[in-house]
Amino acid sequence: MKIFLYEHDLPNNLNLGESVAIDTETRGLNINRDRLCLVQLSDGNGDAHLVQICARKQKSPNLEALLKDDKVEKLFHFARFDLAVLTRNLCPVFGPVYCTKIASKLARTYSDRHGLKELCSELLSVELSKQQQSTDWGAEVLTEAQKKYAASDVLFLHKLKEKLNEQLDREGKLEIANRCFDFLTHRVSLDLLGYQELDIFHH
Questions:
Q1: pTM to 2 decimal places
Q2: pLDDT (tens digit per residue) in 177-188
Q3: How far is Cα 145 from Cα 3, in angstroms, rounded to an integer?
């Protein structure tokens, strides 16, 4: 595994293919308060590319071009949060989206544990450490532990998608999963309008 760290943008010559795993690290979990600090990406081949986003507003043309490319599939774990953060801090995200948390909730009804750590452990026999989850991601210099943690959030999403799709297909839930993924952009728009907690579909 190799971890590449960049300042504010991806390099000009980097091609991550047609399916990219993406994750974000922020200063907190409030999408309208806490800024984006780091974007992690992987093409599923064992390497991770980390883009540090500084507090000063700067352009990220290569990263934004990738996010806007409607021919590139974006894989997330808890896409609802990451899509909102990217949309608010960088640009709208286009193209097909896949969320391993939604897929897990639809496929793994035998469990109420749908975190990335649990999925990697059960489906891939990979044990992840979450010790660095609540650290200062806005620091100018990231520690090696932070970099490894951030990389682990994207390195396994392609393999998890394969495993979860096997279960979704077997249980006849692949079509409804895809419809849920398609709805995510609308759910994110509601979140950014302030409807995170209010269920507008409730009586």
A1: 0.95
A2: 999 999 999 999
A3: 12
